[in-house]
């Protein structure tokens, strides 16, 4: 069956307002008889878009079903008064799994590495200069001579790929075993939070944290010009070029195996598809709701511990204190960074600032002596007078699943293939063994798309289009 494809409404890089116009293009044929396609991808976050582009580039007919009005999931950005603002602070691991996956799909990102002047740490409520390179860090004033010597040994350890055996050890256990004084432990814990977003050392895998720190030290991260929306738009564009289709405002409520090993997929408002393969690129909880008949997916959802952060996103006319560009808490789990100082995000002079508190658990919202606005008062006094826009996000799920030591770190993560369910895959930042956060979302999406294409060829399943 040849199906007419709906073109995507493309946005210029860095103009998220256009992306929010990506319209649903429900096909009339879907409303009666189920529409036959090779692949249905549920969810148009980074993982879903990557899975869809990968499969579509292999010549398969692909439909992406997204419950929101716009694609992108947690990677969307907002356009405010000429500035592009991500939802919370964002850094893409340079040359990491995500970056390399994007390049393999023909998506080039533009951006720069943060660093240079204006870096500070916060210790006992005071700002202390934080050296900008690993070499100068060894001369940090807040460390004693003995701690600096200890740090140089630790740096050598942290520059190496960690031993896989550390996957079962918690980050807290690893830190306890290093015999660090409070200031040095605070510094190392800060690196862990900064690179993984997690503040649950008693649960996360030491291997996972050390891998992120190692990658950040060796390759650095990128703040992206035009925000993370630029990735979303580039992936949507690749999807359209490969003749894939995106349906927005299409919430999938059910996915079941039917005759001939095919899958029936239905949305809340009556679209139905008969698909050769399905990729569930949603959180484990959302996946369990879509396939309630599969206990293994429910187990993944039940075992998940979310990584959470409280965020404050701010746009200012100008910076009251241009010398304070980045602050990382050493004895408090806090983050402050002027992202527009590194990436092209705002008209000249304006500043896009992200402030965050890494939350330890669900009940940790608002914990700590300083609220995020009070932190702004402290770091950028008078900011309210030059305020263009602000957004407060009390508890964001940075990832639905922290990488847990109890599950064997990244090596114990599920998918992309769902065991015993031919033609059913999962993708997202909780799936597969490649990278963490957005890197894992992008890499597992591409892996799922690749597996879909391979199983289509090996099974010689009847194709829907062409
Ligand atoms: C505040 C914050 C800061 C972050 N900072 C970083 C960072 O600096 N570096 C980094 O690497 N990562 C970062 N991340 C993580 C990164 O954003 C995520 O890992 C990534 O965006 C997850 O993509 P995903 O496709 O797996 O999931 P999602 O973005 O959650 O996408 C899932 C999509 O599925 C849709 N959906 C759900 N249910 C259904 C349904 N029933 N039917 C149809 N559609 C459905 C959702 O609407 C959504 O669009 C951050 C996240 C947050 C929240």
Overview of the molecule:
With 466 residues, the chain is of the alpha/beta class. The chain has helices at 16-19, 28-31, 46-57, 97-104, 134-137, 145-158, 171-176, 182-196, 206-219, 229-241, 284-290, 295-302, 372-379, 437-459; strands at residues 35-42, 62-65, 77-80, 83-86, 92-93, 111-112, 119-123, 126-129, 221-224, 245-247, 252-257, 263-267, 272-280, 307-316, 326-329, 334-338, 351-359, 387-399, 424-426. Among the domains are: 16-75 and 229-302 and 404-459, 3-Layer(bba) Sandwich (FAD/NAD(P)-binding domain); 134-218, Orthogonal Bundle (Guanine Nucleotide Dissociation Inhibitor, domain 1). It is built from 14 helices and 19 strands. Helix 3 (46-57) runs parallel beside helix 10, helix 8 crosses helix 9 (206-219) and helix 11 packs antiparallel against helix 12. Bound molecules: flavin-adenine dinucleotide. The site of flavin-adenine dinucleotide (FAD) has 37 residues, from helix 3, helix 11, strand 14, strand 18 and helix 14.
Summary tags:
single chain, 466 residues, alpha/beta, FAD/NAD(P)-binding domain, Guanine Nucleotide Dissociation Inhibitor, domain 1, 19 strands, globular, binds flavin-adenine dinucleotide
